[in-house]
UniProtKB/TrEMBL annotation:
Domain called ABC transporter: residue spans: 4-241
Protein name, as recorded: ABC transporter ATP-binding protein
InterPro entries on file: AAA+_ATPase, ABC_transporter-like_ATP-bd, ABC_transpr_FbpC, ABC_transpr_MalK/UgpC-like, Mo/tungstate-bd_C_term_dom, NA-bd_OB-fold, P-loop_NTPase, Transp-assoc_OB_typ2
Superkingdom field: Bacteria
Similarity annotation: Belongs to the ABC transporter superfamily.
Entry keyword set: ATP-binding, Cell membrane, Membrane, Nucleotide-binding, Transport
Database matches in Pfam families: ABC_tran (PF00005), TOBE_2 (PF08402)
Gene Ontology terms, MF aspect: ABC-type ferric iron transporter activity; ATP binding; ATP hydrolysis activity
Cellular component, GO annotation: ATP-binding cassette (ABC) transporter complex, substrate-binding subunit-containing
Amino acid sequence: MAKITLSKLRHSYLPAPTSASDYALKEIDLDWSDGGAYALLGPSGCGKSTLLNIISGLLVPSEGQILFDGQDVTKLPPDQRNIAQVFQFPVIYDTMTVYDNLAFPLRNRGRDEATVEKRVMAIAEMLEVTEMLDQKAAGLSPDNKQKISMGRGLVREDVNVVMFDEPLTVIDPHLKWKLRSKLKELHQRVKATMIYVTHDQTEALTFADQVVVMQLGEVVQIGTPVELFERPAHTFVGHFIGSPGMNILPCTFEGEAKIDGQPVALEGPVRGTPNGKTEIGIRPEFVSLSDSGLPATVTKVSDIGRHTVVECNCLGHKVNAVIEEGAAPHKGDETHLAFRQDQTRLYVDGWLATDPE
C-alpha cells in the first residue's frame, strides 16, 4: 500500500503540444492517502482512463511526476510499481480452476505453496467463492468471473495500489449492487489503496471516501459524496451528480441576483465582484411549490416511487422540483417556485462564487 502523489502532471498525445487544448490532461496535483478508497468520476473522454494508465505505468506523462510514498516512479515500468489492475472485462484463464487463477499472481512471483494456499483461501472466503475453487473458470457467470478478476488483484500483499477501470460495465444491472457492496467490504477488510474509475455516479459515490470529478482533462472538484452533492464547486459537478441534476439558471448580478428581473436570495455573500457569466444553481430537492416566489407552469410530473419530480417552465427556464409528500400537481397547473435560501448559490463562469452565512 502506498500514498500516491501526482505533481504538476500533464499529458498530451501530440508530439509538440502548443496550447491547453492540445492536452488530454491539464495540470493535475493530487495526494491520495495510504489505504484510502478513491474514485475518478467523469464522462467518456474526460481523461480519467489516461490518468489511470499514467499511474499504472502504461503511459509516461508529458510533464510532471508520480510518487509512491515519496519515491519517483514516473519512468518505472508497470512491473516495478507493484500495482494491480482490474479491467472492464475480466482477466482470467478459462482453462484454469478458480483456485489456480487466484494463485497465479503469487506463483508467478515465486511464493511458496504454503503462502499461496493461505492467501488464496483468505481471498476466496472474502469473495464468497470457496465452493467454486475446484471449478474451471470457463463455466462461471460474468459476475463471478469479475469476482475472480478482483481476487487476482487483491491476493498479493505487496501491492501499492489496486486500480479498477470500469469493472462493472459488463455486469447485469441486478448483480451490480452485489458487487459494489462486496468491493466496499473488501476495501474495509484489506485496507489497500484503491482507485476506481467510472462514469457512473452511483458506483463512484457508493464505493469511494473521496471522489475526483473530472471534465475535459481537468479536476473540477475533489470531495466526499456528501460534499459533492451539497456544495458543488462547479456547475458541471452539480449537473453530473444527482438525479435529476442541479437546476442551473442564467441570472444577472448587480448587488443582488435576479432571474429575468425577479430577485432571488442567495445563501450568503458573493466573493469579490462577479465578472463573467453568472448563473444560479439549486438542487431540485430544495425547490418547493408555493403560493409565492417565481411564477411557473407545470410541464411534466414523474412519480418515481419515493418522491415525485415536477418539471416546470419558470420564466422561460426548465426547473425541476422534488416533492416528497402531499398531493402532486398536474401538467398545466400554474404555481410559484420557492428556493431554499441556504441552498441557492451563485456561479460565475461555472465556478461557485458564494459563501454560506
